[in-house]
TrEMBL record:
InterPro entries given in the database record: Tail_sheath_C, Tail_sheath_structural
Family matches, as PANTHER family: PHAGE TAIL SHEATH PROTEIN, PTHR35861
Protein origin, superkingdom: Bacteria
Domain (Tail sheath protein C-terminal) ranges: 539-644
Family to which the UniProt record says this protein belongs: Belongs to the myoviridae tail sheath protein family.
UniProt protein name: Phage tail sheath family protein
Pfam family, one: Phage_sheath_1C
Amino acid sequence: MAAYATPGVYYERVDSDAASVSPLRTDIAGFVGMAARGPLHIPMPVQSWRQFQAYFGDCIGGGYLAYAVRAFFENGGRRAWIVRIASSWADTAAFDLTNQAAQPAWSIRAISPGGWGNTLRVALRATHRVQTLMDPLQSTPEYARVTSVAGFQRGTHVRIPIKPGLAVYRMVAAVDAPAHRLYWVDPDPRGRSDAQQPLTGLDPNSTPLLESVEYTVLVFDGARLLATYEGLSLLPDHPRYGPQVLAPLPAPPPDPRDWKLPDTPPTLCIVELRTPAQIDAMQPLADAAVGSLLGGGVDGLNQLTVRDFIGEPVDLADDDAVRRDKTRGLAALAAISEVALLAIPDIHIQPEQPPLYQPLPPCIPDPCLPQPPPPDAMRVSVDADLPPRFSDAAVYQVQAAMVQQCETLRDRFALLDAPYDCVRDPRLGIAAVRAWRQRFDSPFAALYYPWARVVDPLFLPTVRSRDIPASGHVAGFCAATDIAAGVHKAPANGELIWLQDLTQPVDTVTHGLLNDEHIDVLRAFPGRGLRIFGARTLSSDPDWIYINVRRLISMIAKALKQSCQWAVFEPNDIVTRSKLHLAITSFLLILWQRGALAGNAARSAFYVICNEDNNPPAIRDDGQLIVEVGIAPAIPFEFVVLRVGRVGNEFDITDTGQPGGHA
């Protein structure tokens, strides 16, 4: 510590971040599927069901994604990453605006591709928020002397009448408030541009009224007003330049966890169609009536392929465009390191057309308000572009890719759903799902049977149900278990929310057969609701039977990898080894105290070796530092046996828990 002699306040920097290891979140899920709207093949984080609806829309007949995400949040999930997929045929609905010279100017487009944008109508209205009078006698071609400059700024688009029925347009290049001047040509040569033009041809005996020109864009869905965007300017120099205010959604940052989504998702964006060489920048836009309907939006679902679900490996020689094209669906989620659960329910899609809704009864409009457009009686809520039904070979290809990604990254776990025929064809019984299970042997995946039956929001108020894969419910329950207890607790024997029934009833005998083959069953218990009653992986290795064991080891390995990066390039001496030993031991001790590790004492639950024995001089000379960690994860009790026997004139009752074995 420094010695201080003079009284006063001194600043010292102290690094209080000691070497430590902290548990990581394991409750974050990643979903890949089809949605009504939203960016394509870009992972986006959502924190609630309402936020998903805002960015990706509601349930659709051509996808299970929205159902699965709602089930995830209903069952306790708090954060998920969503990747919306579509084929390369997907296109964005748009409406092109021209100026008064019939030249292309702006393209108003839906914020994301899909047929949803075809229902949007736009209205463009020119407004004049600021007005002032000009004195031609005290003006020059470079500036105008006005009565007031309030409201004018650099980049303001100004309408100037020079003759009855004839007006010209200029851009304000600079404002001199004390002199009451609006400059058309910047007095500073460094601030001049091609858009600045002198003003000539004014009648010296007139007093023209100068008006600012800005635009209001109204967005309607049928007869319902969705959004109003006011004060948009045609000129790029203005801070409210239309294509800048209503810009497309930005690309994700290098670390997607830093992506902050807007609180209110935009409905549309504006793209500039013109270039200075093609058009007079001062020409105002032509008015667009309320009936201007966006068109050309295509969902791109009927041409969907397996490639759109899983993407392709990226080659080092690929340019950026090729990389973006290959990074589709599941491949886009590979970059999100915080994803711990993986689900792709839409590969099992059985598309359905939603019902045709009857038009609402007409309302009597208020004569004092602007008249809305007439209701579109022919407008119905349907999915004209439905995806195909995928074969078992395609389903296996996608699920195999999920398992491969989990095995490669080793930080996530795949939740697999049994194919549709396995859960809906009564002629096959459980033979189909047992045969499907034999396709996999991995500790990084679990197979769930049967499907869930939920109330379908598309058919309300007729209250019809729909059968959906259960991976969304399972992911939500796993997340809730991780938050409440920890990843070491088996995600089973808990009641599921937001489902009415299961597609297949499972009795005790059938459940035993499926459990022996590591198929996790959802069952209905009288008085206890619908529950997950299985927690096994698809591994044949006895060490990796249970889901919680595999996920606990993955969390520990990832936490150690991230938290021990500080040791790289540190001196390979006893100080560094002692710090690592202390940090890892403290971390494992916390897990043992929470019940994640077995053993009556810490020494029987884990060990950490990082000393001279496993780091001899030969190892240190190679630039290596070895830490050996051994743990005994807690294994769940699958079978609890109550032994009831008579001893003399009393009954003796004992309970025996047998993990991983039959009684």
